[in-house]
Amino acid sequence: MRVPNSVVLPVGTHVDCCQKQEVEEKRSNIMAKIAAMLAERKSNLAHFINNLEDSEEPEFYVDQWERLKEMESCTLTILDLVAVNCTDHRDIKKLEATILEHVKNEELFPEVVRVLPPVYRHVEAAIVDITQSEEMAGHGMMDLQYLLSELSQREHLASLDRELLQDILRYLHRIGLIVWYEEIKHLESTVFLQPTFLITTFKLLVRDRLVQQLESIS
Questions:
Q1: Which range marks the domain in which residue 187 is found?
Q2: Which of 45, 57, 81, 125 could be stapled to 10 by a disulfide with Cβ–Cβ 3.0 to 4.6 Å?
Q3: DSSP string, the chain
Q4: Does 215 reside within a domain?
């Protein structure tokens, strides 16, 4: 909701636990809830903006007003929910095909036809090579400056500077190859070259029925 022109594909899992009619009912219910949530967000933002504009001294609230207007301009496209049975490989392939179909839609993603400079492909290939090397730590974390020095030693990348690398990392972050939390001060100098490590860590910390599991331990 804070990213301009976002496209969201809702995915419903555990289809194997539901009857066919129940899946359709849940799909309709979820999409209706999403629509209601977006309508409420739009209404709340308009209400907050009007309150600031109608205040006695609106000039004191210019920063808040600009942030709210920026959020208001962030449009959100919600695609039809895809229901899958995660235990069925055919459903996983169906989800993959659906994602690829949407990504290739130029109306949804105008930048899909943009040709990337060769240096983007060189950096991407080099990072994949680094993650697959035996020297790579299991957690896949690397200091940004150290990553730059490693990449600069490779063919075609000798002229790579920090600013260009950061632009490329933003792109690689968007496509999911790496994770880089540049907006978080304590993590801005750390690049996660193996996002699967983060997923595994989050699964250990955030899990279903965690409280009940902890309470069951004597």
A1: 118-201
A2: 81
A3: --STTEEE--EE--GGGS-HHHHHHHHHHHHHHHHHHHHHHHHHHHHHHHHHHTSS-GGGGHHHHHHHHHHHT--EEEPPPEE--TT-HHHHHHHHHHHHHHHT-TTT-GGGGPPPPHHHHHHHHHHHHHHTSTTS-TT-EEEHHHHHHHHHTSTT-TT--HHHHHHHHHHHHHTTSSB--TTSGGGTTEEES-HHHHHHHHHHHS-TTHHHHHHT--
A4: no
